[in-house]
């Protein structure tokens, strides 16, 4: 075991909203191969940063356990960029008995396949239709995204696909592509985009928050693509 884990930071306060039906501690892994201009975790994009020691992680988990936390969210950055992700999942589950949710952008199906038997819930971002992936995320290898969708749909214990709806990106045509990508899924979530001054690309900082009306319009468009369709942030 290396002296440091890949966990770069964590939220001091447990969350009621990041892991369905769980009171969860949220842990961040740095590094992401995408370059989304609307990234809310831009400080975690790009290169890897030093992680917490396993001892510090243990102390944090012991404290969370005392606070009645029953789940862990591993998010980023992109968690599948971490070589020790399977080790981390074992640590959270076996040492502390936490249920583990993994967030991913679907760029690393090989590591995802290794982790799927270990995690209890997976949330994969479907950023846009395949045709727009290179422009929107900077990621060219669409086959990997497709492989991750297929793996999750067939092997995850519980999961969701989700899209954050940005007015200028998620046109009707784009969302028809997304519908095809997630067709036959268990759960699909439409999430409101919230602009912030610190977003990496200026063009996204002034786009208005997604309206409730737009989310409900897309809910109708996506009807039938998943057993359950959720709206978040309306
Ligand atoms: S995939 Fe997520 S973490 Fe990576 S750049 Fe895009 S929004 Fe940021």
Helix/strand layout:
Layout: E1 7-10, E2 24-29, H1 54-66, E3 71-76, H2 85-96, E4 99-104, H3 109-115, E5 121-125, H4 133-137, H5 142-155, E6 159-165, H6 172-182, E7 185-192, H7 202-205, H8 212-222, E8 226-232
Characterization of this structure:
By secondary structure, the chain is α/β, with parallel strands linked by helices. It has a single domain, classed as TIM Barrel (Alpha-Beta Barrel), CATH 3.20.20. It contains eight helices and eight strands. Helix 3 links the parallel strand 4 and strand 5. The longest helix is centred in the middle third of the chain and has 14 residues.
What is the name of the CATH architecture? Alpha-Beta Barrel
Number of strands: 8
Give the N-to-C terminal Cα separation. 44 Å
β content, as a range? 15-25%
Return the average pLDDT rounded to an integer: 95
Poorly predicted segments: none
The bound ligands are:
iron/sulfur cluster
Which short descriptors sum up this protein?
8 strands; TIM Barrel; 8-stranded mixed beta sheet; 234 residues; alpha/beta; binds iron/sulfur cluster
The gist of it:
33% of the residues lie in helices and 21% in strands. By secondary structure, the chain is an alpha/beta fold.
């Amino acid at each position: 075991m290396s002296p440091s884990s890949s966990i770069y930071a964590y939220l001091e306060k447990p969350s009621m909203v990041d892991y369905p039906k769980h009171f969860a501690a949220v842990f961040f892994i740095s590094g992401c191969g995408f370059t989304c201009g609307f990234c809310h975790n831009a400080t975690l994009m790009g290169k890897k940063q030093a992680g917490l020691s396993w001892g510090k992680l243990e102390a944090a988990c012991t404290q969370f356990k005392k606070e009645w936390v029953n789940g862990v969210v591993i998010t980023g950055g992109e968690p599948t960029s971490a070589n020790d992700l399977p080790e981390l999942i074992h640590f959270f589950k076996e040492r502390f008995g936490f249920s583990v949710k993994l967030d991913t952008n679907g760029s690393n199906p090989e590591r995802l396949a290794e982790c799927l038997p270990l995690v209890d819930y997976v949330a994969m971002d479907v950023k846009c239709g395949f045709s727009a992936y290179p422009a929107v995320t900077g990621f060219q290898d669409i086959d990997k995204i497709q492989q991750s969708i297929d793996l999750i749909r067939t092997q995850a214990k519980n999961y969701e696909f989700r899209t954050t709806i940005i007015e200028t990106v998620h046109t009707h045509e784009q969302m028809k592509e997304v519908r095809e990508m997630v067709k036959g899924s268990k759960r699909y979530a439409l999430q409101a985009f919230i602009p912030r001054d610190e977003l990496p690309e200026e063009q996204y900082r002034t786009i208005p928050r997604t309206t409730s009306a737009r989310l409900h319009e897309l809910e109708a468009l996506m009807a039938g693509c998943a057993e359950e369709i959720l709206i978040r942030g309306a």
